[in-house]
Amino acid sequence: MDQHGLKAPSRKTIHYRYLFRYEDGREKEFNIELDGETLGVIPADQTRPPEWTKLKYFQCKNCPLPDTVTHCPVAVNLGRLVDAFRDDVSYESTTITVETPQRTYVKKTTLQKGLSSIIGVYMVTSDCPVLDKLRPMSRFHLPFATPVETFFRSISAYLTAQFLLMRKQKEPDWSLDKLVDIYKAINVVNRGMSERLLNASEKDANVNALVILHSFGDGIGYFIEDGLDEIEPMFSVFLKEHNGLAPPADDKPKSSST
Fold it and tell me: Is residue 257 part of a domain?
């Protein structure tokens, strides 16, 4: 382990470390460990999850989990985080450091934006059948992503999944119609989780962090319909009728003899 208590990166686990520094000198640290193959979060020891993590406590309207599951897996994994920020306001200024196996990010921003980033990782890696569709994005986690960056990563991940389906002789969805449906279902989960966090918190930092995630889900349909036109010029090299590739060897002009 290093000085921060992080294990050395390996093929079996992926580590993300979040450090929140307040202007008054306080610090709060969280380490996330993901299974390197499944990308599922490796739970911290939490023998007695709080009451608000029970499945029936403001259960999401589209929750597919059976009644035999006693606690919401997302809520359980968010338990320590939510409790740590339950008395914080969303617009409090913080400097947030995020360490990943490849690089370190540092940003001075509002608490809610940093919380939104870490909550997003927990939500898609906690074995929620609805949120699991976004799990591949956690492998290429981008803290403090802008809406356009988030939309681009989401669409790219989804199209990669469709390509893999095609390779397995299954029907891909190149139109992105099902991606919009995925986000509609995710937004239902976000509303349910908002109710949980609202009742688990005294102030608004946790809830407003989730509102940011909800806004991404609301915007994906618009981005597919209109936003892609804005970034289309970036791909002009692919869209040109003749893209400048060298002709096949048999078509190369032959030098004339003298």
Answer: no
**Which 3-state string (H, E, C) describes 98-126?**
EECCCCEEEEEEEHHHHHHHHHHHHHHCC
Number of H helices, E strands in the chain: 8, 4
How far is the C-alpha of 14 from the C-alpha of 32, rounded, in Å?
A: 8
Question: Does some domain include residue 155?
Answer: yes
Query: For residue 145, what are its two tokens?
Result: 């992503």
Looking at the structure of the chain, the number of domains it has is 1
Per-residue pLDDT of 153-208, as tens digits, reads: 999 999 999 999 999 999 999 999 999 999 999 999 999 999 999 988 989 999 99
Element (H, E) at 32: strand 27-35
Encode pLDDT of 15-50 as tens digits. 999 999 999 999 999 999 999 999 999 987 767 888
Give the C-alpha separation, 27 to 45, whole Å. Answer: 21
247 assigned to some structural domain: no
**With contact defined as beta carbons under 8 Å apart, do 28 and 20 qualify?**
yes
- Residue 200: CB atoms within 10 Å: 21
Task: Label residues 56-73 b or e (16+ Cβ within 10 Å = b).
Answer: ebbebeebebeeeeebbb
Q: Residue 212: give the domain boundaries.
A: 13-232
pTM of the model: 0.84
Residues, the chain: 258
237 within some domain: no
DSSP letter assigned to residue 35? E
pLDDT at 2 over 70: no
